[in-house]
Amino acid sequence: SNQHFNIELDTNSVPRYSCAAHKLNLAVRSGIKKSKKFSYILAKLSKFASEIRRSNIKSLSFIENKAKLRCENGTRWSSSYLMLESFLKAYEKKAFSDEKAFEKQDKPCPVSQRTILSYLKILNPLYTLSLLTQKADWHIGDVIQGLIFIFDSLDESTELGEKKQLILNLKNEIRIRFKFILESKIYILAATFNVSKLNFLYGSEDFNELSDKAVNETPFFFY
Q: Which domain of life is it from (predicted)?
């Protein structure tokens, strides 16, 4: 239970504040792991990249085209994003054979360029937020605003099948990992008064709801 990790202050049990970057990494990793088809695609690409990198002959085309393929690192989900990005760049640099060969099942890459690009588009907002959470000037006023940006960017209504399920899994895991923050009066108030980004989020349904909640609960901080 999470209560074992709380800090006891007098008679109050207070949850520990933890790194947003770490929470996000755990949430996205879990969301990806629960998406079986996507996990299978990532495993195929990582295995393929490993085989190419171990063979001087197989890697020749990639070396000539300056297209280095990356493998996954199981501890950080961002390695999955960077791996997908490396495959997309390899496609763009013509390191693989042409599209007609793919129809004949002769193409060396096990996943089509279109599929790789579609998953990159889903993961890009998460990767962007992951980089932002690691900046030195990142503070608690940015956390909820960053999460709202993610929830607005991850739109499952535009996808079908496995991709839709991936988005739902990601959003659900993020809500679970950031549950305390999303319900915290301190974080909500900090986000509301983080004026540098209010214009960016103005009109968002999630932000309007949190803003109303912050205004209603602000008096509690003066007693």
A: Eukaryota
* Contact indicator for 197, 142 with CB cutoff of 8 Å: yes
Q: Encoding tokens for residue 130?
A: 């992951």
Phi, psi of 148 (to 5 degrees): -65, -40
Calculate the alpha carbon distances from 145 to 27, 35, 123, 136, 151 in Å. Answer: 17, 26, 18, 17, 10
Residues 90-118, mean pLDDT to the nearest whole number = 73
The string of pLDDT tens digits covering residues 118-127 is 999 999 999 9
pLDDT 10s digits, 33-59: 999 999 999 999 999 988 888 877 677
Q: How far apart are CA 196 and CA 205, in angstroms?
A: 19
User: Which residues, at least 6 apart from 167, have a Cβ–Cβ distance to it below 8 Å?
Assistant: 122, 154, 155, 156, 159
Report which residue type is found at 200: F
Closest CA to 138 of 19, 14, 15: 19
Work out the number of other CB atoms within 10 angstroms of the CB of residue 202.
Answer: 10
Q: Residue 5 in contact with residue 16, Cβ under 8 Å?
A: yes
Beta pairing partners, 9: 12
Q: From CA 117, how far away is CA 101, in angstroms rounded?
A: 19
pLDDT at position 56: 72
